[in-house]
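hey so u asked for the seq, here:
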Amino acid sequence: METIHTNRMKEIEKITTELVSGINFEKSPYVDIVPLVEKVGFKVIPKSMPIQTTGCILVDENKKNNKRIIMVNTIFRNPENETDVIFKKSRFITAHEFGHFILHKKEGQPMYAHRDTYHRKDPLELEADYFARSLLLPIKQFKVYSSVLNSIEGNNEEFTVEMLSELFKITKNKIKKRMGDISVLVN
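ran it, structure tokens below
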């Protein structure tokens, strides 16, 4: 399994913790990603694209132009037959592309990046994926909800993953990856 260095994970955790610091998590662990990216000037556009491209980011900040666009594919595979898969995956792709902007944008240069299902092992893609998981599944809230759910069903992982997916509105696959992230950070 390809991964990023633990120190980089901790740096990204710090960035995303700050980004969600103004969110009130008392009633729900849900991070509403669209208003978050709109605050920094992004427009999120759902668009039908080839299945292998899940999304892209376009940033052009020259003197005449100030465009920040995240496009999210509206066509996804759904191997686990999950409910709300388009919504859940769209949220993740939006956060992933925003991660490219926060982590990889070079000052004064335009930016174009796309999430292609064939380049998942690229280090920048791994970082953007980690950023998205960290942003949408904030570590503090994720640990609390995981602990409560585990205590309800006696550490039944399938139940916990299902409930976390519904609460955080993220696919079960990303919930499992986040569990793995946190186990790396804790050890």
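Residues 85-104 form the longest helix (20 residues). The beta strands are 43-47, 53-60, 67-73, 111-116.
lmk if thats what u needed
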